[in-house]
Amino acid sequence: MESHPVAPRPQPPRAKYARGFSLLETAMVVLLIGGAIAVGMLVLQARKPVRQVQAQEQALQWADQALVAYAAANAHLPCPVNTPTSDIDDCVGPNQKGWLPTRALEAVHPGGGSPGQPLRYMVYRGGAAGSDLAVASNQFSPHNWKREAHDFADINGLDLCAVIANAARESTSAVKADRARTSDIDGNAINVAYGLSVAGPTPGDSGLFDGLNQQSVASMESPARGADSGYDDRVRVREFNTLAQTLGCHYADATNPDGVVLASLDMLALAVDVSDEVDDQNEALIRDTQSSYEMAIVSEVFAVLNVALAAASIANSVSTLIAGSTQLATAVATCPVPPFVSCGLIAPYTAAVTSAGVAIGFASGATALAASALVAISLGLDKTKQARDMAKAGSSKGPPDIAGLKQNACIAAEGGTLYEKADENGNMIPVPLGFWKDGLKQEVEKLEQKLIQTIADRDAAQARLDWLGRIPSHLIDYPPRPVRRSWQECVTDGNGNQTCQTKYESDASYNQRIDDWLETKRHMEEVLQPKLAAIRAAEDAYFQWETTVELVEQARTGRDQMNEAIGQLAQQVQQCDLSPPTELDAIRRCSNNRVALMGMSANPCNPDLLTADQVEKRQCLAWKNEDLQEAEANEHEAQQAYASKFWTAWTLPQPPIAAYLDDAGIPGLPWVCSVTWPCNDLIILGQHDNENDKRETYAMTYYKHLGLVVAVVEQTKELEAKREAYEEAQAQCDALRALELGGSNGGQTIPVWAGAEAILQGANCKGATGPVQPSLCPSAGATP
């Protein structure tokens, strides 16, 4: 029976469910979106005060920078105005608070732009112009030695510095209640140079600003006050000292009210007084053409009485004073040296550079003639004559020759080609083809090579001493090492035949002779070392003796020069007594001659009659005699010490010395120390006095080493001094290159003032408040 598959029973269709969000899911999404929006609004609301504070601070910073820039350009602060859009001259009443003149300040702000909102503003306005920061007034002029002010009417930053100092001074003792003021962090009232306030988002009871900031009185809330429910303004103030330092005055407080810049200009004014005094002295030197050695002493006295104090004050007080005493002294000291390159640097130098970027330039000033009057006694008659000739030459009153100064300064520093030189009479003559003149740079290079060679020679001498003196020493002529003895022993038999046999020294005998030989070597070395030590002591003593001999010569020369100077000065005083002078400069000269003669010839010396410099240099005849006596006593003692030590070194025993000397020093003759009594292989009598005797004895090598050690020290000092002089000269050369007018090297154009008085006026005009020159000054390129 067949079976057939059964078809499956059909199933009923399944129900289809709906797709999408349910009501619950929709509610959740809406809730999340709403929460996010709420949180975002809260975050934005929380950041709003931060942005407001930032905007306030930016406005205060902009206004503060603009006020400083305005003061730098105009030598005063602007006054508060009646409305935020008022012109600069629409000022509120004295000692009132107003609005910041934003439109006027936008033109001077270094970054441009604007504060973005109006600001309240107050400024310290004193009862008189001398302390009113909103008024440009002439409150400072440099003073002379009599504390009399120069008559300079230019108004600039120096005057503003003086006004700030006056305001700080008058508000130190007690707070001025009617002038710009606020409170410090402790709540104490203080006066300020100026104050700024910017409003917060919440208006105050009487206007946009809160508390004192809204009122018209010149007072503001403390910058330290924090925000609260009734206050959201922000305040910034400038105290007197911070404003002064920002403007370049450096200090303006009760302990130092004048400030560094004002003191610098006063020092420059004193330099002008010195220049005038030197001009007067120069005229006197021109009339006194016959003075010689005694005038060097008179000039030195003049320098002490009339110039030294000013020079010291300037050197210690002015931050930069070009053509100062160092450059003048260097120029005068090197002027007499052919080809007299530095002579051109003496007359044209008088210039000054004050702090805060004041650049006056170079000018020919009579101050340089002080070098003519400052000739030291030790320079002698020839130097005095040169000083007199320079005084006769006078000082240039015209604008300085920057190119000529640059050429001379750069040749002095770097070397160069010269086209004129001095003849035997000191007159300059042309050299058409020119000749090379080494500068300080080449001198430094030569000294460096010289020092390298001296160090090498010193080290070679030390190495030779070490080589000769070590144990075993190359100085000793050691006996040869023993060799084992041997001999032949022969025996003859009955037939007459001889049989020989070599016999050797016994070990005991040979070893004993070796021990004896070693002992002999040790004994030789033991004898040599005291000998070498004694030789070194003798050479040390000789070196010291030579030093004392030089000191005696120096002391004797100083004594003789003092005697000569006193004699010349006595003649000058006698002439004054025979023909009493009537002119003021001659009367002064005679008076100073008498004082100098009394001080230099007094016995015992009286320091009250001498200057501090003369006391330090012992410029008195009695002292010079004492110095000579002491030097002679020291020389005699040193000579005796050398004689004793040399005899000890000479007579001490020594071992046989090897032939270690290389040069007899006598052409054609060998050295024979064994047969010549004064000759010793280690130390030779009188060898120091015979420059032709080049034998490198141990004594001479040690003596040479002593000299080389000292030479290295002295040459190192000389090189350091020369290198320092070169660096200064190179800096001067570079400065002149930068200041060369119209040069092809990109030199800057600078204002030139001719004459010491004009330099001072130029410095006063330039001011100390930045690169913007006050409009009331003369043209920068003018020659007053």
From TrEMBL:
Question: Which terms are listed as keywords in the entry?
Answer: Coiled coil, Membrane, Transmembrane, Transmembrane helix
| Superkingdom of this protein's organism | Bacteria
Q: Which residues form a coiled coil?
A: 437-464, 709-739
| Residues spanning the membrane | 20-44
Q: What is this protein called?
A: Prepilin-type N-terminal cleavage/methylation domain-containing protein
Q: Which organism is it from?
A: Luteimonas cucumeris
